[in-house]
Amino acid sequence: xxxxxxxxxxxxxxxxxxxxxxxxxxxxxxxxxxxxxxxxxxxxxxxxxxxxxxxxxxxxxxxxxxxxxxxxxxxxxxxxxxxxxxxxxxxxxxxxxxxxxxxxxxxxxxxxxxxxxxxxxxxxxxxxxxxxxxxxxxxxxxxxxxxxxxxxxxxxxxxxx
Length: 161
Fold this sequence. Notes:
- The chain is built from seven helices and no strands.
- It has helices at about 5, 15-20, 25-50, 60-70, 75-90, 100-110, 145-160.
- By secondary structure, the chain is mostly helical.
- α6 (about 100-110) runs parallel beside α7.
């Protein structure tokens, strides 16, 4: 299905809860939506294990724990939030790692002889070109391109070999 046909499908349009209700109400609605998911998770955990299991514990402390883990989930969430903020601040757009999957899959299919360059996703204005080199960094390489190349290069190389 081409991009134009996909965009023409019925939809409800863009909805911004922040614009419609303000950030406090939007946050409360979002948390109210997440609460049933959290409660369902607790019910499933108790059913499977008899009680909620505590977080990961370890004897490692200091630098050993920092280097070798295990890390608390909050630390991972904060690291992801800071990485997304840095990408948003430096590149002017949010972190979008999903384009790496489209690029890798397309490069693999191109290696198998499929003409993916004719697909609607790769037509201008495409996020990146399927004909671009595997590591697209040039003089203007930014944080998002480096993270995309670093995360997708091994998969693309192994998949197209």
